[in-house]
Design a protein that fits this description.
Order of helices and strands: EEEHEHHHHEHEEHHHHHEHHHEEEH
Strand order of the largest sheet: 5-8-3-9-10-4-11
CATH topology of the largest domain: Alkaline Phosphatase, subunit A
Distance between the termini: 44 Å
Structural class: alpha/beta
Helix content: 25-40%
Number of strands: 11
Number of domains: 2
CATH class of the largest domain: Alpha Beta
């Protein structure tokens, strides 16, 4: 009997399903040309709260030869597969003037509410047209691949809460969500253990039952893994061994850190349908406990085709997670950002910003080191977008936004290592909130460019107009 080709294979046993990486030697096809199938495209949006120290973020020069700034330094190993974009503006979208309601939200919440959709919060709180870029791309990303069905999870929303308990004069969804569909917020998963369950066990109920029995997820499928292994090529056998070892190690780490990140058992717990305003982990431990687990899970989710769309929030708008683990003393992020001005506070913020970029750089490098069947990397078939709710934490402006693009939409975008400065008359290095605004290019045009790269040829997005940015198109 011939098997239908599928990029995504699964091992199943005892009610548990484990996704596997792409194993070419495990596939059979009725068509001789099946080997020419193109790997799927993926999208990831990465939200960093409280802006950046733009003076230390912006490269001094533009073009191909830019020298990494202090904050962007960790991206140097991956710079040829990324773009730094500066000078973009969406102040008039984030903060309509005059205010339609007379009670506009805090600037951070205004920027988070329109982060990936370009629909303002003020005057549009119940706007059913609010649909974020990740959701607009789903029909393209999740279409059948080489005759196989789409990914296990249509899209994934992940976040670290932020621990401020503040909602900034608006519904809390606007500060805690960047993924939206038809005006409805898609809430984040805040617990790496819960994300692990969704990816590998098909739901928290199965994982909870197994955790109670002290039974590893892999135990129920190890026999089938051994059976499959003997049919694989040597290279695929090594890949399968590495994958099962990776999942086993990750499961062990989740068991060890479960109580720190708020789980109720050694492995998994049930969570409320809506995100809580605080986490069980303390503000000074939630980031270091959760961040590395989330980034590793995101790598696996893309590499194993478990999902092709991820949104990730380092923290909510007004995030006050404590970076004591970096600074050495209690350092709530939003309080530091809002009150920054002294040399010491700007230095502490620069340390936090640099650490955030370092985590993104590590994930991008891991995706670039994970190869596809066509000889390119997972990153080559991914579009990665990173920005913030505001540009500068002190000025709280929504112009001269910090934007990073990486990957390239399987060649649909021209991502080649440049720094593109759309408003070169701004002073370099940047000074907090100083300089004229850009009347020509808006942040939403990056999203329009991404849509065009995926074959969605619309020239507006939300309230953003202007068509794609020519500099981003191949």
């Amino acid at each position: 009997m011939q098997r239908t080709p599928s990029r995504r294979l699964f091992l199943a046993g005892a009610g548990v399903t484990l996704a596997l990486p792409f194993l070419p030697s495990a596939l059979w096809s009725r068509r001789a040309g099946a080997g020419t199938c193109v790997p799927p495209r993926r999208f990831m949006a990465w939200f960093a709260p409280n802006g950046m120290v733009m003076d230390n973020w912006t490269p001094v020069t533009a073009g191909m030869g830019w020298a990494p700034s202090t904050i962007l330094g960790p991206l140097k190993p991956i710079r040829n597969k990324m773009l730094v974009v500066t000078g973009l503006d969406h102040e008039s979208i984030a903060v309509p003037q005059p205010s339609p309601t007379g009670t506009p939200p805090d600037p951070e919440v205004a920027g988070t509410g329109c982060f990936l959709n370009m629909v303002p919060v003020d005057g549009h709180a119940i706007d059913t047209t609010r649909t974020s870029l990740d959701q607009v791309l789903l029909p393209v990303l999740n279409g059948p691949d080489c005759g196989a069905p789409g990914p296990w999870l249509p899209s994934v929303q992940i976040g670290i809460d932020g621990n401020s308990g503040l909602c900034g004069m608006a519904d809390c969804s606007f500060s805690r969500t960047i993924s939206w569909k038809n005006g409805m917020a898609l809430p984040c998963i805040y617990d790496p253990a819960q994300l692990f369950d969704a990816m590998f066990a098909g739901g928290t109920d199965i994982a909870a039952r197994q955790a109670a029995a002290r039974k590893s997820i892999l135990d129920s499928v190890v026999a089938e893994a051994k059976s499959l292994s003997v049919t694989l090529s040597p290279s695929d056998r090594l890949k399968l061994d590495e994958h099962t070892t990776l999942v086993r190690n990750l499961e062990t780490r989740l068991q060890r850190t479960g109580k720190t990140i708020g789980t109720t058992s050694d492995f998994a717990c049930s969570h409320p349908s809506r995100p809580p305003s605080t986490l069980n982990a303390t503000p000074s431990t939630v980031v270091p406990a959760s961040f590395p687990l989330f980034t590793q899970l995101m790598q696996i989710a893309f590499a194993c085709d478990i999902t092709r769309s991820i949104t990730f929030m380092i923290g909510s708008a007004l995030s006050n997670d404590d970076y004591e683990f970096l600074i050495g003393a209690s350092t709530p992020h939003h309080l530091l950002s809002s009150g920054a001005g002294s040399a010491s506070s700007l230095a502490a913020l620069t340390t936090i910003d640099t650490w955030e970029i370092q985590q993104a750089a590590g994930l991008l490098a891991a995706l670039d080191n994970t190869m596809e069947a066509d000889g390119k990397s997972v990153l080559d078939h991914t579009t990665f977008y990173m920005s913030s709710d505001i540009a500068d934490g002190v000025a709280k402006n929504h112009w001269d936004m910090p934007v990073i693009l990486a990957g390239g939409a399987s060649g649909g975008l021209k991502v080649d290592g440049r720094h593109i400065n759309y408003f070169p008359t701004l002073p370099v290095p940047r000074v907090a909130g100083v300089g004229p605004r850009n009347p020509n290019q808006n942040t939403g045009q990056v999203f329009i460019s991404i849509l065009h790269a995926h074959g969605i040829l619309q020239d507006t997005f939300g309230l953003a107009t202007g068509g794609p940015l020519p500099e981003l198109m191949p």
